[in-house]
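ok so I'm stuck.
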Amino acid sequence: MKKFIILLLTFILSISIIGCENTENNDETKTQQKNNEKEDNKNNKQSQENEKEESYLEETTTTNASGEQVVTNPNDILVLTNKDRNLPKDYEPEDLVAPDIPFVFKDSPVRFMRQIAAENLEELFKVGSESGFKFYGRSGYRSYDIQTSLFNQYVEANGIEEANKFSAKPGQSEHQTGLAMDVTSEVVNNQLTQSFGETADGKWLASNAHKFGFIIRFPKGKEDITGYQYEPWHLRYVGKDVSKEIYDLNITLEEYFKDYFEK
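replied:
not stuck anymore, here's the structure
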């Protein structure tokens, strides 16, 4: 009888232990399921964010017969054109005007800009002059054909690999948007040179252009992102809100679209 009682107690204890283990296993399973759900939600959220990013960049391009990505929003002041995003060959802004600023070459055929960019550039030059800096415009809107001629000259003189570092292929130039202007001053003999960025004129321009809606489109240290060498002279109009954000974050237009742009 005593042995029977001991066996019975042992059996009951075993059942209790097994029950506890099953409860613990169930708890662990539930915890693991919750963790998996959290991870899935996190991955889904990240996937949705990636889809949002990709969808905007993709929805503003179409593929032409040559397999090139061509932008479908060339009139947008935030149009992104680079080595992966081409402008239509026949694109020419309808609101081109000559900004009322000093130019290196008087009556230059490439002195034009889109009106909103020209008006803000005039204000930038005015404030710069009041601060003791006299800037000159050198090159604004360039058509597809003009860019073709220019790029071919650079290729002939430097080879295509080198030319690709400082000159855009036709269709990929910021200048064709009508929103860009190359700016220089007498401290560098009105040339387009990287040393301009080290002058008082160049530093003032870099520190103040965003107040008028412009960014330094190809900043130093970002060559692997923009695809082009540092150009302290190349201003691109994007509007005052976006230019301030880009300036404050010290990023490029490509980085802005990748991480900060919201439709």
